[in-house]
Fold this sequence. Notes:
Elements: H1 81-90, H2 92-116, H3 150-167, H4 172-181, H5 184-188, H6 194-220, H7 228-271, H8 280-317, H9 328-360
Helix pairs in contact: 1-9, 2-3, 2-9, 4-6, 6-7, 7-8, 8-9
Amino acid sequence: xxxELAQASYFxxxxxxQKMALAPPPWGLPHHxxxxxxxxxxxxxxxxxxDPRPDAAGPWASxxxxxxxxxxxxxxxxxxxxxxxxxxxxxRDGIDKLLKLVRYTAKLALVTVTASQPAAAxxxxxxxxxxxxxxxxxxxPHVLPSIFTxxxxxxxxxxxxDARKAYRLGKWLQGVAAFREAGGWEALGGGRGVSPLLAACxxxxxxxxxxxxxxxxxxxxxVAPLLWGPAITRTSATAELASYAASSAxxxxxxxxxxxxxxxxxRALASRGAWPGNGPDVSSIRAxxxxxxxxxxxxxxxxxxxxxxxxxxxxDLRRGSSGLLASKPLLALAGLTSAILGTRKVWLATVQTGxxxxxxx
Length: 361
């Protein structure tokens, strides 16, 4: 998969309320689109206002993104790099994204090496009926002076693909938990609004996808019958596509709400006649604008990651088709882009956790 981010200051108590009609919070947003550490547009903790705090109440909030602190005193201590690497590797998603990064790097290298290899020359017939050089598979006429041969790269890519499926054992329970947090079947029926509905659909598709991936792993391991493979793959890819579609729609709704909130903050700043002046209110508004900018960047990267993963899922669903879905270089680049964004997101979450631990000690 076949979901890319220093704590911000809180709104002061004396800040005027900015009443706006925003989308309800996307309860239980799945892992592949959740920007780490941010409460999304919706109901805030101050009685209906939108709460821009990184730790705003809501089950979608996780580790905060590294935003520049509003004041030098708010700067968090830098964690030890070795501790960060250990913390990253302790995370299941960290190992998964790292394996994905290696897998699609090998796939892209395989496409490059295969395309750069010269075509095999025809054997030259000799008078005795032989040939000028051996042409058997054991003795190819062109051997790359490197370990990065097509056969080795293909074996590495296939091995990592199977390892990722095995490592995701039980991960579908996260989708079940996200579906429950989104409101369950009530949210799926639309009784809680658009955003919870989209979050429930994304969580349901996510959980089904990871559950079926276990079946794919059993088929490849030879435990389940091979006849089950095509049906499991198609159903899994369909669930994955549905999850990406719902989470992308949810991200677009949140981007629209962020845009409305930014307009309100800029109007409030201009109404004070202090642009670009200083003062408690002005500094607070500027800090809030910085938080909004970080959230917007996280959402856009999440949309890009979802788009890349959706392309890979569509390729699995339409296996054997022609065109873009059969382009090996494009699919390798899409997978590599998604892997980079996913690794970045998990790493930033690890950095935030390390900063919090360093501050506590």
